[in-house]
Specification:
Layout (H helix, E strand, L loop, with lengths): L3 H4 L4 E4 L9 H17 L6 E4 L4
Parallel strand pairs: 1-2
C-alpha cells in the first residue's frame, strides 16, 4: 500500500465491545464514551480507531 511506510509507528485503537468491562452495562458504556472523548482530545491523535463487531 502506498504511504504505509510513512505511517508506521502510529497508534491504532481497537474497540470490540459496546461497553468496557463486565457487569453494569450502563456504566461500561459511559466509561467507553469517556475514553473515546479522551482519545479525541489527545495530541498526537491516534492514527485510527477501529470499531469491530463480534459475530
Amino acid at each position: 500500500m502506498a504511504g504505509t511506510a510513512a505511517r508506521l509507528g502510529g497508534t491504532v485503537v481497537v474497540v470490540n465491545a459496546e461497553q468496557m468491562g463486565r457487569g453494569d452495562d450502563g456504566l461500561g458504556a459511559k466509561l467507553l464514551g469517556n475514553d473515546l472523548r479522551t482519545l479525541a482530545a489527545l495530541e498526537p491523535k491516534p492514527e485510527a480507531i477501529v470499531f469491530r463487531r463480534r459475530p
